[in-house]
Amino acid sequence: MGNCTRALGYDERMTTTVLDVRNLTKRFGDVIAVDDVSFEIGGGEMVGLVGQNGAGKSTTIHMVLGLTTPSSGSITILGRDPHHDRSALQQVNFSAAYTSLPQTLSVEENLIVFARLYGLRKPRRRVHEVLELLGVPHFAPMRTRSLSSGQATLVHIAKALLNKPRLLLLDEPTASLDPDAADRTRGVLRRVSIDEGFTTLITSHNMREVEEMCHRIIFIHRGRVVATGSPAEVTAAYGSPDLESAFLRVTRGEP
């Protein structure tokens, strides 16, 4: 894994803890959706949060974003609790395949709206910087309704990068993409992560994607962390030939 982690930007930045989650629990009535989950993510690190539907991934992300209040436990982003100090969320952004933007506006118009919401002083300049960074400056005049799934995914990522977040949360970033578009998007994310130095927490059901992109994996099952480590370490721990096989063993209740 040494060569792989260097290629992904694994370096001394990771000694800085960006996200620290401690004994996080969330109950909905009698249901425990997240059960005593703890992990931390260092600066510049790309970490995969994986598990089957209903495992607690989205609830965990919603608590990190300050959208859902934990029943117990703590979350700190660069040392600040987003549930008590909302300024911590200025260092965070989020992108998901299932979100949408106003269809009648151009890409540039949509992104300028968000840049202003983020309080950027020169919104148009930052919009064009981000589109250049992603290699898609020609998207600017395009109407959002005319975008392909792959193009729309890159626009959502562009929106999430506008405020130069220290922590980027990606929920199923390539879920709706064909293999070629998904591969291109992963390449863009890897490159931009190195160039911009942000920290990324990714949820995905695509185990090949997680193996390819992530330095570490946090495997969550029925609300609890059952394994954590590099893709190779998690695979070896379950005696599986690849991460997908390990995923199946966990979700099917095999030892």
Characterization of the model:
Helices cover 35% and strands 24% of the residues. The chain has nine helices and nine strands. It has helices at 2-7, 57-64, 107-117, 123-133, 149-161, 179-196, 207-213, 231-237, 243-251; strands spanning 17-28, 31-42, 46-50, 72-77, 92-96, 167-171, 199-203, 216-221, 224-229. It has a six-stranded mixed β-sheet with strand order 5-6-7-3-8-9, with helices on both faces. A three-stranded antiparallel β-sheet has the order 2-1-4, covered by helices on one side. A hairpin with a 2-residue loop joins strand 8 (216-221) and strand 9. Helix 3 (107-117) crosses helix 4.
Which key phrases capture this entry?
6-stranded mixed sheet; disordered N terminus; 9 strands; alpha/beta; 255 residues; 3-stranded antiparallel sheet
Summarize the structure.
With 255 residues, the chain is an alpha/beta fold.
